[in-house]
Design goal:
heterodimer, A: 2 domains, 5-stranded mixed beta sheet, two-stranded antiparallel ribbon, 7 strands, rod-shaped, B: 123 residues, Rossmann fold, globular
Chain lengths: 454, 123
Amino acid sequence: MNLLLLIAILYYLRRNLESKTLLPEWDKIFVRGMIVSFILFGLQYTLPALGVVLNWLSYVAIFYLIYLSLKNPAFKPVKPLVNAVIPFILIEFVSDLTDAINKPFYEDWEFVFESASFFAFIWMIAMLFVNNKQRKALEKERQKALEDKKRLQISESMKAALEVQVAERTKELMGQKESLEKALEDLRATQTQLIHSEKMASLGELTAGIAHEIQNPLNFVNNFSEVNNELFLELKEELDKGDMEEVKAIAADIEQNLQKINHHGKRADAIVKGMLQHSRSSGLHKEMTDINVLADEYFRLAYHGLRAKDKSFNAILNSEFDENAGSINVIAQDIGRVILNLITNAFYAVDEKRKSGVEGYEPAVTVSTKRIAATGEEEEQLRISVKDNGSGIPQTVLDKIFQPFFTTKPTGQGTGLGLSMSYDIIQAHGGELKVETKEGEGSEFTVILPASGV
Amino acid sequence: MNVLVVDDEEDVKLLFEQRFRKEIKNEEIQFAFAFSGEAALQYLTQHQQEAVLILSDINMPGMSGLDLLKKIKEKEASPPPKVVMITAYGDEENYNTAMRLGADDFLTKPLDFTQLKEKLKAL
């Protein structure tokens, strides 16, 4: 009977201590103990006399195990189990001992011993049951903690992987950023180049007009100086004759001619200066500029420029300049470029319509200026309008006309930068560039510049 | 002789008056001036038969010299006035167009006044 108990105890110890993994040395002892106990248990039935000896040996073994459980720290987890077993073992031991020493006494009190043994057994079962439950709960918690730990490990490794990914992405993004910056730089350089070529293109448009504009004053300078030479000869003749009236008349003419020579010389000079200004890139200052003079100058240049290129071109040119337009503070050559661009576009529009062969069509371009007094809401403005009676701008392209590189002209004939540059120039002056158009009837571009503080 | 000079440059008036000073003084030539094609046509309707010769610039804003030439030659005036075209661009295209439209002569700027005087005297 005690051997079975010993086997049970050994079994429990092994299981609860997880000795197979945690205490391999003790596990060997437990396993051997179980095997020996089984063999002895078998022998007990073939040799009944051995039973008594084995019974006492079992007690020794059990007490030794209990002693071990209480003393050895490694056996701490099985303490509740030992506590459950001790009363039963003690009572069994005492009853067996009493039975062996004083059999009559034992027989008289057998009932008491049996009851005590029974209750101790109940106690043991109850304790084991409770202990088992606690152990299971603990086990569950341990499992949970283990799972948490596992989860934590997974999230840690994920975090690490993520960090690596983030680092890679960051590196990638940095690379992209650098290449984008490079692209932006290239674009800026290209833009500068394009702006330059647009300027050169408009300069080309102007060159013929400028040549014509210079030729006329030069002709006058030459002609008037030649006339003056003749007049001086006549003057001498008249002096010899003594006709002082005629001398005075000739002298007056000479003086007038000299003024004309000076006037036309200055005119040619202004044109050359204007041309130089036009080709210069930037870094310019605002200066008080007579808008009517500026508009008129570029109107003529644009017209002669186009005429020089296309002999068949002609248009009615109307200037409606407001006498009160006066001067405003602007970068003259920039505003001049805008006016030139708008007029060139207007000429292109009317010429296209003329070429399309509309019956009785008379191309006409009107350039007008107007100073508009300040109102309660708006400050004083100066408006420059360029109006044509061309074909107008279709609604489908109207949104795009101020976009860079947008052009309706055939490839190679327009950079698509004229209006976009004009728009930027007017914006930089704190003004507005507006367009009104009606398909089939024409367009009107209006530059609105602030004129206050002048 | 009545000559109408058409040019958008107003100083041609002064120039011609000085260049033909003697001729004007001796009343050999009378000059009239118009500063656009439109003004020239207006002058011609007001002074019919007076202008014997018209000297016109080609390159003018609005009505060009060639348009003016065409309009003058289309009118039924007998005899039609002689028209001499003047241009800064002495190119073939302008020359051919002018001749096709019935121009009597074609001169290029800068004008050689000595040559012009001779041409006028020959008329």
